[in-house]
Structure formats: C-alpha cells, structure tokens
Amino acid sequence: MTYIKIKNLKKTYYDDPVTESIRDISLDIEEGEFVTFFGPNGCGKTTMFNVLCGLETDFEGRVTINKKNPEHARVGFVFQNYHDSMFPWRTVIDNVTFGLEMEGVSKAKREQVGNKLLQKVNLWEHHNKFLYQLSGGMKQLTSICRALAFNPDVLLMDEPFSALDYHTSRKMEMELLKIWRENKKTTLFISHEIDEAVLLADRVVVLSKRPAEIKGIVKVDLPRPRTLEMLRDERFYKIRNKVLDLFEDDGGAR
Amino acid sequence: MSRLEFLKTLSDKDGTRRTGYMLLTPLLIILIWQFSSSLELVNALFLPGPWTVFSELVGLCLSAEILPDVGATFVRVFVSFFLAIIIGTPIGMMMGYFKKVYYSLEFVVDFFRSIPATALFPLFLLFFGIGDAAKIAIAVWGSTLIIVVNSMYGVKHANKLRLRAARAYKAKGFKLFRHVILPESLPEIVTGYRLGVSLCLIIVIVVEMFIGTNVGLGHRILDAQLVYKIPEMYSAIILTGVLGYAINKLFMLLEKKVLHYSGR
User: Fold this and answer.
1) Percent of chain B topping pLDDT 90
2) Partner-chain residue, chosen from A85, A89, A99, that has the shortest CB–CB distance to B261
3) Under an 8 A CB cutoff, do B179 and A102 touch?
4) Which CATH superfamily does the domain covering B67-258 fall into?
5) What is the pLDDT at residue B5?
C-alpha cells in the first residue's frame, strides 16, 4: 500500500528572479522502502524535502505521508551539515531527545528512548559529552539517533555523509543499513554519490537539472543485507550504469 | 587566534610564560614612567613618580579612606548595568526576531546611539535631579543601547539551519525561544554585556566628576585634581582601571563556564 504519495508536486519561488524549482514530480513510496534521490546540484531535492517535512507549505500538488499532511506527519530529518543542525549547548543525549522534549515527553521516558538508541550505535559511553567533543562521524550518528528517537513516519536524509571522508562514510552507510534493517523506517535519502545511492536503495530516483523532474527510476534488486563487497559485484555495476545513463541523458554530469 | 584557542590559553596549566607576557607591557610602562620622572622629563607636579603614586595608593587603601568611593562607584555601575540588562535584552531580542519591532525601533535606537550619553546630561538633570537617580539613569541609557544592538544581532545572526532543524522537530513558541534561540544568541548578547558594563563604568565616573556627589571614584579624581593632590588623583584613576579590569575578567570567567559551546 502506498505510504508516501507525491502527486504533481510543483514549486516555484516568486522572488526576484523567479525560480522554478520543481516542475512536476509524482511518486509513490511503499512503507519501509529505502529510496535514494540522485541528481545534479541545486535541482530542487532539498526543496522537495522541505515540502515533505512541512517546513515548506506553499506548493502546488498533493503530498501525503501515512495519510497525513506533511505538517502533521512526524519526520526525522538528518541534514548534511551535522555541525550546524545540532545543538552544541546540549549534551549528546539531550540532542538525541530534542524532538521528544519539544513534544513534552517526560524526562525519564525521553532518556529511556535516547539511551536505548545510543547503546545500539555504540555511542552510549559518550551520552554526557557535548557535540564538539565528538568526531564528525559520531556527530552524524547522533543526528540519526535524534531523527529515530522522534519515532518518525519517515526518515529524510539530505546528503548526510557527504561531509565525511571516504572511509567514514562507507562505515556510516553500513551502520545506517543496520539501523534500517532493525526498524524498517521508510527512508528517503538524497545522495551525490552514485555508489552510495545504489548500494543503499531499493529504488534510485534520478532527477533532472532544475526545474526538477523525474528522469527515471531504477530498481535495485541486489540482495539484502548489503555489504561493501557488493560495490565490486557485476550486478552492482549494471545498475550503477543504468543510473548513470539516465543521469547523463541531459548533460547532468557535464 | 580564534576565540577557542584564546580561551584554551586561559585554562593552560603551564601559565608561567603567559604571566610573563602579561606583566611585560605594564612593567615597561612603569619603567618609562620612572625614567621620565627621574630624568625630570615631565613636571613632577603633573606626573609624580610611580613610587609616590603607589605609596599613596597603598596608603589610601590601607586607611580604607578610598573604599567608600570604590564602593559607591561599584554600586552605581552594578545597579545601572543590571537595569540595562533587564531593559535592553528583551527589547534587542524582540528587534532581532520580529521584523515589525525592528522597523519600529531601528531609527530611534541608531539615532540615540550616535549621541554620546554624556551629551544628554542636562536632560537627565531636568528629569532626575542631581541625586544618584540621574547618575544611574544616564549610565542605564548609554549601556542599554549597546545591549539592545548586540542582543538584536545575536538573534539575527542565529544559525538558520539550526532553526530549521529545531522547527523540523516541532519546536515552536516559548520552547523554541528557550531551547534554541536564547542559547544560540547568548554569546553575542554577552559580548554586548561586556561592552555595556565598561560603558557603565565610564559614564558613572564621568557623571560623578561633573554632577555633584559626595562619594565615588570620579568625584575623588576631580576633587584631588582641584586641590592639586596629584598622587591621590592618579591613585583613584588606577583604582578605576583595576575595577574595570576586574569586572571584565569576571565576565570572561563566566563566559568560559556558561558559554563553553561558543564558536564550536
């Protein structure tokens, strides 16, 4: 059954100059699906995420998440910039439970949820530290925990690992897949890295240059659980090339 | 040197070198002072040697004669600064957050900020008389404007992505203010406090000099000058400096403790 329904989503900014950000996007996403979005820079992916998390309410078309309007849906947002999107004056555990605190959940209950998540990703020993005492990867992991602690209908991840080095981002991808296997949250993931986009996803949505349109959707039928070894698999290459063909169709890579 | 590195040097355990550097310039100034006085480069009536001034200063402190002056000035600075915080912070933060408040107050704040508070002496004398109220009111006026401007920019400069993240997690109203906007803008607000307290001290001293008072460092400076008790005048000036420096240091300690996240 369709869990997230995006129907004829259009968004134009009537500033000076007028910018057509999203031309027409329609997409159905199943519950528990992992969908990655792959497209050139500034193609309106972030605008789409803003619509999905209810921060952008002025758009054309229809968007529902779990039958709710985006403003009423629970969204766990993981930003690319883990430094500026987290709260440096709060400890790790207080960052993780931020969303729950805003909702008025009791401290005991919040900490129970937060501690459980931190234990799962081996960050618990750092729970009383401040963010600036952690490495980049740990900060982003904290940010993912913050999103999950909110018990979201959907997890939106906007290039979460692109600021990390190669080794750390691969490690984080595996960590993310492990978390995803356990709780099966519907996840929408923007990526600039074709390997990442393919390795994580059930489906890769290839977007055009701005104004954004869907150029094609590639199903990734690699078995799960995914491993880093799959990056060398022939099947992986085939899928990757399909994505690349769609992407380069309008000079997206040029 | 970044702010972080700077604060780190303050917590450096091996501070001998630092203390050395810190003492270097003051010692140099005293040395030059001593030389010019020994060689009689300046009239001893206008600038007595450091020894004369420091023994006068010690004498004044030991006899506790000057303590009421220090106390009176300190109380005036403290009260006016406290009032300036209470008035200036909310006004500035609202100006930073609400465009309507900003547009309504921007002209007034920037206009009066360009006028030296001390130029408004006559006005304050008319309204508050020549008692402590006028002295405090004028210091409040001057430092409030600085605190307003810094509090405003503190909120205006709040990281947009952080606010977006907070809103994505349904933070709004007072909770958004208390848990995100306030801690986010506090470092810049506190910078305003530091500037504000220094200005309070300056205004209080000047006002003590020129509006009648019986007690206060400014009063002591001017009185000593009028009767040519020059070593006493310098003692009071040095004490004013010490007071200002101590207040500033206190603020830095507070910043290091409360605003540990600033710039990180």
Assistant:
1) 60
2) A89
3) yes
4) MetI-like (1.10.3720.10)
5) 65
